[in-house]
Specification:
Blueprint (H helix, E strand, L loop, with lengths): L1 E5 L7 H14 L4 E5 L5 H13 L4 H21 L4 H19 L6 H9 L1 H16 L5 E2 L7 E2 L10 H16 L4 E4 L2 E4 L4 E3 L5 H11 L4 E6 L20 E2 L1 H9 L10 H6 L4 E5 L8 E3 L11 E15 L7 H13 L6 E5 L2 E7 L2 H11 L3 E15 L3 H8 L4 E7 L2 E7 L2
Parallel strand pairs: 1-2, 1-8, 2-5, 3-5, 4-6, 8-10, 9-11
Antiparallel strand pairs: 6-7, 10-11, 12-14, 12-15, 13-14, 15-17, 16-17
Helix pairs in contact: 1-3, 2-3, 2-5, 3-4, 4-6, 7-8
Bound molecules: aspartic acid and magnesium ion.
Magnesium ion (MG) binds next to loops.
């Protein structure tokens, strides 16, 4: 059996959904599980709705109306008003969604986030499963939350792989015989029965978990690019597409921020030797990129990865003591507890520096924790460039006339933190 994953861009409007149905119709002859993200920029819209709701800003109601129109317009486009059942189904879902706000739910931000944001994937999968049925593909919808079981770490929940595997194995194989299955990426459930999410862009990871639990013959992630490229074509000219990559190369590229793959995706696949195929939904005849066992490490083609919205945090000793082992373990503990991800770090006698994605909430929690013991300051709005296998000419092309704040080289990997212009 195979697992397919379609992200937000591949289902951003009615035409895109028709294209996805075509791909499933043509490619999905064998047993197939289809994992889907929220449509277009829905997750961002849901984040904004929640932020305004929490701030008591009534604009959230207007934003809900916009999100509703976006989804209902797609339905209208798909069915030209000829399918009241699909319409009622979506109306019911939006009633549930709005009910959440009517009830005036309060509580921990991360908890509320998961309860609200998960609706994006519920809306999209219901629309897609119903549309597939309407064009003669006997698709079946199921709720991923009944299978992907996680801990309580809302917004970045850790998956209980053993429990998830046994639940998947108990039910899904027999359901696969009846037509393609459609489910949500990104979302799961904890043991108390509350919705959790696996971290932004986590649908790739969900698809990998299902592929792992079902011992799939392949996971295919459908993208708006022809495969995995050595750099983002929106930023760099003359990009090169990889025909194939080793698991290690793919892990490293996603670790440094290549947005084509969620960093957690590779591990479950590598552990069970399941190939990952990245293909273009724009042109499914293209060969894409294959990541599989037995592919040699890639040492020739230079790679450039760019991460915007970076924050440099400097943590200095307040009493002239060294930043040595005990201080470091204290600092790392705070970083881990406040769930910051280190994209680059450097240590010197009296200072520890780290680069992380800008996240005002996490940053202020870290500052609050460390402020009384250390001198902490931070600079926002930076950009991190990472290169692999780059010669000086390529590096120069990547950096052009950027102002470098910090640089670090390890083996064939070089990282440059720059001021964004
Ligand atoms: N919809 C979620 C997000 O935008 C998950 C995903 O797209 O993978 O982050
Ligand atoms: Mg997405």
């Amino acid at each position: 059996m195979k697992v397919f994953k379609f992200g937000g861009a591949s289902i951003k409007d009615a035409e895109a959904i028709r294209n996805v149905a075509k791909i499933i119709g043509a490619e999905g002859q064998e047993q197939l599980l289809v994992v889907v993200s929220a449509m277009g920029k829905t997750t961002n819209a849901l984040e904004a709705i929640l932020a305004h709701y929490i701030d008591g800003d009534m604009v959230y109601r207007t934003e809900i109306d916009k999100l509703k129109s976006f989804h209902f317009n797609i339905l209208q486009e798909l069915y030209k008003g000829n399918d009241p059942a699909a319409l009622h189904q979506l109306e019911d879902l939006f009633l549930q969604f709005e009910w959440f706000f009517e009830l005036g739910e309060k509580g921990n931000y991360d908890f509320l986030y998961d309860q609200v944001v998960a609706f994006g994937e519920i809306f999209s999968t219901k629309i897609i499963a119903t549309y597939l049925q309407s064009v003669g593909i006997p698709a079946k919808w199921f709720d991923a939350r009944n299978f992907i079981i996680t801990n309580d770490n809302y917004r970045e929940a850790a998956v209980d792989f053993a429990l998830t595997e046994s639940l998947v194995q108990r039910k899904i194989p027999q359901m696969l015989g009846e037509g393609p299955l459609v489910t949500q990426g990104f979302i799961g459930k904890n043991r108390q029965g509350h919705t959790t999410t696996l971290g932004r862009e986590g649908s790739d990871f969900s698809a990998a978990i299902f592929a792992w639990a079902l011992q799939a013959s392949e996971l295919c992630i459908w993208k708006d690019v022809p495969g995995i490229l050595n750099a983002d074509p929106k930023r760099f000219a003359n990009t090169v597409k990889f025909q194939e990559l080793s698991y290690t190369d793919a892990v490293e590229m996603s670790y440094y921020g290549a947005s084509v793959l969620h960093p957690k995706t590779m591990q479950p696949l590598q552990n069970r030797h399941i190939p990952l195929h990245v293909r273009s939904f724009v042109d499914p005849t293209l060969p894409g990129t294959r990541i599989a066992d037995g592919v040699a490490a890639q040492t020739e083609i230079p790679v450039a990865i760019v991460k915007d919205r970076q924050c440099l945090i400097r943590i200095a000793s307040a009493n002239f003591s060294f930043i040595a082992e005990s201080n470091l373990s204290r600092i790392f503990q705070s970083i881990a507890e406040n769930r910051l991800k280190i994209n680059l770090m450097r240590n010197s006698a009296m200072r520890f520096e780290l680069v992380t994605d800008c996240d005002a909430r996490k940053l202020s929690a870290l500052l609050a924790d460390l402020d009384s013991e250390y001198l902490v300051d931070h600079t926002d709005g930076l950009t991190l460039y990472t290169t692999r296998n780059a010669d000086p000419a390529y590096t120069q092309k990547v950096l052009q006339d950027k102002e470098i704040v910090l640089e670090q080289k390890t083996g064939n990997v070089a990282q440059y933190l720059t001021k964004s212009h």
